[in-house]
Amino acid sequence: MKLWSISTTVRNPERLRNFLKVLKHLEGEPFTSDNQKNYQILLIQHKFYYPTKIPTKCQKYYENPEMPIPFKDAEKIFYHQNYEDPAMRGRQSVNPLNKLGFSIAREKEGKIIITELGNRFLTEDYDIGYIFFKSLLKLQFPNPWSNDFSAKYGFDIQPLIATMHLINKVNKKSDKNGLTQDEFSLFVPSLINYKLIDEYVSKVFEYREARNKDKFVIDFAKEFYQTKKPTEKQIHNFYEYGDNIMRYFRLTKYFRVATDKFGGNWKIDLEPTRKTEIDQILKEFSGKSLQFNTIKDYLSYISDISLPILPFENICNLQEIARSLVEKIVQFAEVNAISFSGKEESIIKKDFEKLSKEEIEEFITKLRVLNLELKEKQTKKFLLNDRDKIQNIIDSLKDIKKIKKFAPEQFEKIITEALKIINDEIKIKPNYPVDDSGEPISHASGNKPDIECYYKSYNTICEVTLDTSNFQWIRESQPVMRHLRDFEIKFPNTNNYCLFISPKIHIDTLYHFWTSIKHGYNGETQKIIPLTTEQFAMLLETLLTLIKKGKRFLHTDIEKLYKKIILKTTEVKAHSDWYSMIPKIIDEWRTEL
């Protein structure tokens, strides 16, 4: 027996978009052995794949992230790896794109095609929830496209739907909703047949009642792998595959994942605000795989974005979803004593019974946005009045050991919360994708600032990184300056700053920021403020002191600090001198406040 998986080649689902972008260059060509190699070379050329062995003459491309790699040099890097089967690397890289229905790229299947769903993924305004829900809904084992998980090994499953059934049935039998990280990792990757769902529900409760959890895991592994002594790797694979599957499933927004504050330990449940849709799906689909007569039939199915036809595409079911969302929003507002604005009231009281199918779909989207905005408003209200929470954030930011435990998206979240606490912003907009409760489901993509901050008299982007290595300046300095320049172009009549936050700032990163401030980036000077997490925590400590005195920051107070830090570059001769002065500048600013 073997576990099913989505992709261990690309652990971060967001990276698939870059892999797909590169494949787009080869669309229309056959996926021959030569093009399989060319695809991997193009991934290296675009710096979306980093090989382990870099020839000395090519290291300059990685030392300077802005320096493009010519195809011939990318080819040298590729062959320098001494792969036993070079073409196989390209096949492995394209495999998750094929498996998830974003492309059709296989040697014997004609020309490379980017499917309609794949092209939707490549648009600038793509909806990550829609993309991965549509994709994972079609994922099934067995299928004519893959020999990995065949019927002869017992596979007969649509994993997304079967997992929904599993969690739903567990929830009906217990007050403890959802599955823990251990439960999900054991019982989802090993659920290879929809007929096993009820048996696996029982196994979840057996695990919960087991006094010796380690013994249960070993006994379960023995039974699943049909071996007397499972290896460490076999045991480890449960958790590795489980974590990987969770990362993909949560992107659909049909699952809610709660993590500890570091983003490490997690628990997964069905998303409550989508209960109506989930109930309709579970009523319609059992989790059994669909049957296809030929590979051509299957490829036609995964290429058709309208399939499978979902129960909530029916107008009556859409009305039921809208009704459920309105009830949840009204209930949330009542419980939390939230008053609706005139605009929000008009959405809630809209007579959606008379809307067309397209109009009601648009209305449901508006309701989801409103639901999220109300939750964010309530979260900020709690943050502003919770001194313990502020102190907790301060303690975390000052503790390097704690900071290193954070997942990237959780680090972005804690900085976002801190920025919302600090002052009177118009809007703090993190660019990480979120679930229906506003929780991050991944970190911000590389083509946008991590966080955008809008104030009455100026704007700021905030870039955060956990990378404290010697490569920090390579990975961060140029992208940060480029993001700020794009932001400056977008808001030409506003004072624009960039706040850069990291547990530790590398001296070479500082040099690039210093150069940008003093001499400019692509012809124009910039305003970049580099702070360690500990220095940023000092801002929050100052705020906490003011709150205890019945006062608050204004956004103009923060700008005074930014201006002092930027001005200091005109008074000292070196970037190291400038940075060594920042703690003193913060102290003086705090004293003035």
Description:
It is a single chain. The protein has 593 residues and is of the alpha+beta class. It has 4 domains: 15-124, no CATH class; 153-284; 314-379; 386-592, 3-Layer(aba) Sandwich (Restriction Endonuclease). It contains 25 helices and 10 strands. The protein has helices at 15-24, 33-45, 60-63, 71-80, 86-99, 116-122, 128-138, 159-173, 181-187, 197-209, 213-225, 232-250, 275-284, 295-303, 315-335, 342-348, 357-385, 387-398, 400-403, 408-422, 472-490, 507-518, 533-548, 555-567, 575-592; strands at 103-104, 113-114, 179-180, 255-259, 266-270, 427-430, 451-454, 459-464, 496-502, 528-532. The strands form 3 sheets. It has a 5-stranded mixed sheet with strand order 6-7-8-9-10, sandwiched between helices. Strands 3-5-4 form a 3-stranded antiparallel sheet. A hairpin with a 4-residue loop joins strand 7 (451-454) and strand 8. Helix 6 (116-122) runs antiparallel to helix 7 (128-138) and helix 9 (181-187) packs across helix 12. The radius of gyration is 26 Å and the shape is globular. The model has no long low-confidence stretch (mean pLDDT 93).
* Share in β-strands: 5-15%
Overall structural class, as computed from helix and strand content, comes to alpha+beta
The value of Rg in angstroms is 26 Å
User: Outline, from the CA principal axes?
Assistant: globular
Determine the oligomeric state from the structure.
single chain
- Count of domains: 4
